[in-house]
């Protein structure tokens, strides 16, 4: 059964999870925001060809590698990590599991930002 919390509590857990991410990643975060939504929007689902319940998070933006090249086009809007609260909660049965799932999702999306593979992320 899904473990549900109010959005504010979810955001606090996400903030705590973000603070637990290795400093080597956080020190390179520039112009990135984290947004909590209940579910992905229809355009996102259609473009990724996934069902509404399948996506836990999503990184949207320019990867760290491309931001550090000579030909970087700076975009005025921040890169964004979306956390889909209802989908993450559906995988959890208590607050510890919820925290761990939020952290794993954030770390996975940070991996996309840095261009890391799932194998490379397993050590964190």
| Structural class category | alpha+beta
Radius of gyration: 15 Å
Write down the overall mean pLDDT: 87
- Low-pLDDT runs: none
CATH architecture: 2-Layer Sandwich
- The strand count comes to 3
Oligomer: single chain
How many structural domains does the protein architecture include?
A: 1
What's the helical proportion of residues?
40-55%
Shape: globular
CATH domain fold name? Zincin-like
The top-level CATH class is Alpha Beta
Largest beta-sheet details: 3 strands, mixed
Instruction: For the record, give the distance between the C-alpha atoms at the N and C termini, rounded to a whole number.
Output: 27 Å
Strand order of the largest sheet: 1-3-2
Could you spell the SSE succession in H and E letters? HHEHEHEHHH
Any overview of this molecule?
With 124 residues, the protein is of the alpha+beta class. The radius of gyration is 15 Å and the shape is globular. It has helices at 7-19, 23-26, 42-48, 64-67, 85-89, 95-114, 118-121, and strands at residues 32-37, 57-60, 79-84. It has a single domain (7-121), classed as Zincin-like (2-Layer Sandwich), CATH 3.30.2010.20. Helix 1 packs across helix 6 (95-114). It has a three-stranded mixed sheet with strand order 1-3-2. The relative contact order is 0.22.
């Amino acid at each position: 059964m899904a473990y549900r919390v109010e959005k504010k509590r979810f955001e606090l857990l996400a903030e705590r999870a973000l603070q637990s991410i290795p400093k080597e990643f956080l020190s390179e975060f520039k112009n990135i925001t984290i947004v909590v939504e209940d579910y992905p929007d229809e355009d996102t689902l259609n473009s990724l060809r996934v069902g509404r319940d399948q996506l836990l998070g999503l990184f949207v933006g320019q990867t760290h590698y491309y931001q550090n090249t000579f030909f970087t086009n700076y975009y005025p809007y921040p890169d964004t990590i979306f956390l889909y609260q209802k989908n993450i909660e559906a995988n959890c049965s208590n607050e510890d599991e919820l925290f761990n799932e939020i952290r794993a999702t954030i770390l996975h999306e940070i991996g996309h930002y840095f261009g890391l593979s799932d194998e490379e992320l397993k050590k964190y």
